[in-house]
Amino acid sequence: MSLSESRLRANPPSFSNAEFRTALGMFATGVTIVTARTQKGELVGLTANSFNSVSLDPPLVLWSLSRAAASLPAFRAGSHYAINVLGADQQTLALRFASKNVDRFADVAFEDGAGGAPILAGAAASFECFNRSRYEEGDHVIFVGEVERCTRREGASPLLYHGGKFYAEHPL
Fold first, then answer.
1. Contact at 8 Å (CB) between 152 and 125?
2. What is the largest CA-CA distance in the chain?
3. Closest CA to 86 of 162, 27, 166, 16
4. Judging by beta carbons within 10 Å of its beta carbon (0-12, 13-18, 19+), is residue 168 exposed, middle or buried?
5. Cα(61)–Cα(30) distance, rounded to whole angstroms?
6. Alpha helices (runs of H) in the chain, residue ranges in sequence order
7. CA distance 109 to 97
8. 150, 102 Cβ separation under 8 angstroms
C-alpha cells in the first residue's frame, strides 16, 4: 500500500473515550439552552455548549445533539429553534435544562420567538433560527440554523464552561 493510499482514512484513535472527553473539556465554551416547540405545541429545551458561528452572509450558526437525545425527533422535524446564550447569572437555568425527569420550563420566563421557539428571559443573547440543514456525523446530528432574528442583553457577562465546571467570574 502506498503512502497516499494509507492516508485515505483516519488512523484508529490512540486514546480512550474518557481521555478524549477530558481533552475536549479543556476548551472553554459559552453555555446555551436550545429551545423549540413541537408540532403539537410542546416545549423542548436542553443545555448545550456545542454552538458556533458558521457564516455572516447568510447568517448561519450551528450546534450538535446526541443521536440518543430524547428531544432529537422534535429538533429534527421542527422548522425553527432558538439558541439562548446564557449570562453569568443563569447557571441554575443551565443545570435545570441539563437535568432529566424535571419540567424544564416550570416557572421559566420566556416569550415566543420565530416559529414559536421559546426565547428565555435574561439571556445574554438569543438567535432565532430556521432549521436549515442537518448532518449526521458519528454519534451526533449537527444542526445548521439560518438566523432570522438575534438580540443581546447590553453589558451581560457570559456563563462559561471549562473542565467540567461553570465559571461566572472572569478574571482578566
1. yes
2. 62
3. 166
4. middle
5. 14
6. 3-6, 17-24, 72-77, 91-98
7. 14
8. no
Secondary structure letter of residue 73 according to DSSP: H
pLDDT tens-place string over residues 26-46: 999 999 999 999 999 999 999
CA-wise closest residue to 82 among 44, 121, 117: 117
Cα 36 from Cα 161, distance rounded (Å): 23
| Burial annotation 60-96 (CB, 10 A radius, 16+ → b, else e) | bbbbbbeeeeebbebbeebebbbbbbbbbebbebbeb
Rounded Cα gap, residues 72 and 102, in angstroms:
17
Cell digits for 71? 428531544
The dihedral region occupied by 135, where left means phi > 0, alpha psi between -120 and 50, and beta the remainder, is beta
List pLDDT tens digits, range 58-88.
Answer: 999 999 999 999 999 999 999 999 999 999 9
Please name the residues in contact with 7: beta carbons below 8 A apart, sequence gap of 6 or more.
none
